Amino acid sequence: MTSTGSRILHHLTAAGTALAGLSAMMSIGNALFMPRLRRTGAGKPDDRVVVCIPARDEESTVPLLIADLREQTYAGELRVVVLDDGSSDGTLAAARRAADGDPRITVVSTCSPPSPGWTGKAAACRTLADIALDDRPDVIVFVDADVRLTPDAVAASVSVLREHDAALMCPWPEQESGSLVEHLVQPLLAFSWMSSLSVPLANRSLRPSLAVACGQFLMFDAGAYREIGGHESVASSSTEDLDIARTLRRNRKRTILVSGAGFVSCRMYRSWPQLREGYTRWLWSSFGGRVGTALALVGVSVVYLLPPVVALVGTGRTRRVGTVGYLAAVTARLCSARSESAGRADVADLARTAAAACAHPISATIFATLVLDSRRRFARNELSWKSRPLNAPTIDVAPSVAR
User: Fold this and answer.
1) What b/e string do you get for 186-197 counting C-beta neighbours within 10 Å, with b at 16 or more?
2) Which of 83, 85, 219, 290 has the most beta carbons within 10 angstroms of its beta carbon?
3) Average pLDDT in the 354-364 region?
4) CA angle (326 as vertex; 324, 331 as ends), nearest 5
5) What is the pLDDT of residue 385?
6) CA–CA separation, 94 and 84 (whole Å)
7) Could you tell me whether strands 49-55 and 78-85 are parallel, antiparallel, or unpaired per DSSP bridges?
8) Per-residue pLDDT for 397 more than 60?
9) For the residues 18-32, what does the mean pLDDT come to?
10) How many other CB atoms sit within 10 Å of the CB of residue 14?
11) Burial class (CB in 10 A: 0-12, 13-18, 19+), 403
12) Which residues, in sequence order, are bridge partners of residue 55?
């Protein structure tokens, strides 16, 4: 390599290492200071809470969540509404069996496709909200069917929502994984924001760009949710959870993120095909078009791929700089995992976490591949989720709900 090429490589590696160091510092800060759900006697007893569960092809998971909700220790009034959203399996029957006549639980179904301009998730949440808001609740919660809750999860969440006088409170679920590709990719969900912003500071801000939310568990003040028009405000969004948080902030309403570890957990995917379909349905929208996507991928390459490559094959001072950058990225991953977890793990869990952190360059490569795949599938109108096209026109049929 020429001396000019060597200097350029060194400067690029140094820049990547510096940014990796900043991400490590951010992750360390969140590991130390990120707010968490905590055990409490109960939420305010005069808060009426309705939990809404959109379920499409969730025959195996929705009974577990319903069982968790039936065991909640929340002292106030708690109701649950489950929507079987046109499932092709036995979700409806499974939900009714799990409810077992519990008067607090309502199970409804619809076979109507989303109206034009609506994604399936947003349409299902709108249908659930229409039912839930008839009861004039103080708090409305949306929980995905594959989420698991401890008995005090609702009480702890209501307590934090009211303590911070928030319009939206999201307890980030502890993301569980089983297969190798899950171990490599799933931690990136939390890493993406734990390594790039200070959660305590973001929680104090009303800037939409600093909002973070996860649609697996969203708890709203019902009045604030009504004020922005509910999910109608994000009808066409492929990332409706993040966009509804931004909408609230644009309306000067507070949204906060806390760690839900020890209270809320979720295993999103169980195979590479599921994971690929799940990520590609929304990654295309994450960076603001082709130019933004290109810049993001260049950034990932310089910060998380170049330093470890240089550490492996480089020489002299540049190699040492690359090694520091690689170790900084590994540190950021480890601290991110600490923020997301409940802090209790056996030796095998710790070993898996450490191995996944050390394999961060592989994770970054898979992520870049998924981003490109998502852009390609979006351009070809091939995006779908649970057998529903996402960016193709939908049929204009008014929702029909059967109870």
Assistant:
1) bbbbbbebbbeb
2) 85
3) 95
4) 90
5) 80
6) 10
7) parallel
8) no
9) 95
10) 17
11) exposed
12) 84
Element (H, E) at 78: strand 78-85
Q: What is the pTM of this model?
A: 0.91
Q: Both tokens of residue 200?
A: 């305590």
Instruction: Give the number of other Cβ atoms within 10 Å of residue 24's Cβ.
Output: 22
72, 154 contact by CB (below 8 A): yes
Q: Which helix (H) or strand (E) holds 338?
A: helix 316-340
Angle, vertex CA 385, rays to CA 85 and CA 227, nearest 5? 60
Question: pLDDT tens-digit profile of 79-132?
Answer: 999 999 999 999 999 999 999 999 999 999 998 888 888 999 999 999 999 999
Tokens of 304: 């998380």
Measured between alpha carbons, how far is 195 from 334 in angstroms, rounded to an integer?
Answer: 11
CB within 8 Å of 257: residues ≥ 6 apart:
170, 172, 199, 202, 203, 212, 213
DSSP 395: -
**If you search the block for the tokens 């319903």, which residue do you land on?**
66
**Contacts for 381 with CB less than 8 Å, ≥ 6 apart:** 389, 391, 392
Beta-bridged to residue 84, according to DSSP, are 55, 109
Enumerate the H helices of 341-400 as residue ranges: 347-358, 360-379
